[in-house]
Amino acid sequence: MTHQDIITNQQKLVKVLSDTSVGNVLDYNNHRFLLHFLVKQPLTVEEIKIEFQKSGNDKSGKTIYRYLKKLKKAGLVIAAGKRIFTDNNDQIKTQTLFSRVAKVIFTPHSKMESKPELKETALKITSMLLKERLKLRKDADLSCIQKQIDNISKAKNSLIADHFQSSENPELMNLIQTMDIYELYPILDTVSWIILLNEKPEAVNEITKCFK
Q1: pLDDT under 70: residue ranges of the chain
Q2: In the prediction, which pLDDT does 111 show?
Q3: Residue 180 near residue 26 (C-beta atoms within 8 A)
Q4: Which domain CATH number covers 84?
């Protein structure tokens, strides 16, 4: 059966998603499996169904549509376009093609965001460690610490996104796309810290002002 794919919504090269709801979607293995199936090219629901079958994890079309709806709402998947084909009765039909929002998806995700008490404890530990290590006299303003952490996270995310936008290394891109999103995150997080310390050391120094 011959067909023609018309792509009307191109995926991005890299996308940083920091919304905490993204993590809740990605905690479900089948959502991550589906994202992985879309690494190489846009697929129809029927083709996604076949990929699940190949993995020994059969899913119905209805279930796959439900997965896609949640992934689209989280900003992880887009409707990329349409596949036009002629069926056995010579009737012209169309199917929607779905793709990842970007080739590289960077999704910093922390369970602490949904647990205020744990988040506050983590901030206290962070401030105590910094105070001890940097030999500071005063206790930190925890709201200031949180603000600086947020600023550093934004700077890191921006730097790693900028790097991929300018990268011309196809081998790197191919390797990255073979990895599960949660496997990829610690690698990108480490690299983004190194880039930050190299290019914007003042961003880290700002956090010491919270102890005054």
Answers
A1: 1, 20, 108-114
A2: 55
A3: no
A4: 1.10.10.10
Prediction pTM value: 0.73
CA atoms within 13 A on the CB side of 204: 13
| ∠ Cα 106 112 117 (to 5°) | 165
Domain boundary among 53, 72, 106: 106
Parallel, antiparallel or unpaired: strands 12-16 and 102-106? parallel
Residue type, 193: W
C-beta of residue 14 within 8 angstroms of C-beta of residue 107:
no
Cα dihedral 34/39/42/44 (nearest 10): -30
Specify the pLDDT at position 20.
67
pLDDT single digits (tens) 1-27: 678 989 999 988 888 887 767 878 888
Residue pair 110/24 in contact (Cβ under 8 Å)? The answer is no
State both tokens at 19: 């919304």
User: How many domains is the chain partitioned into structurally?
Assistant: 2
Q: Using CA atoms of 56, 111, 24, 148 in order, give the dihedral in degrees to the nearest 10.
A: -130
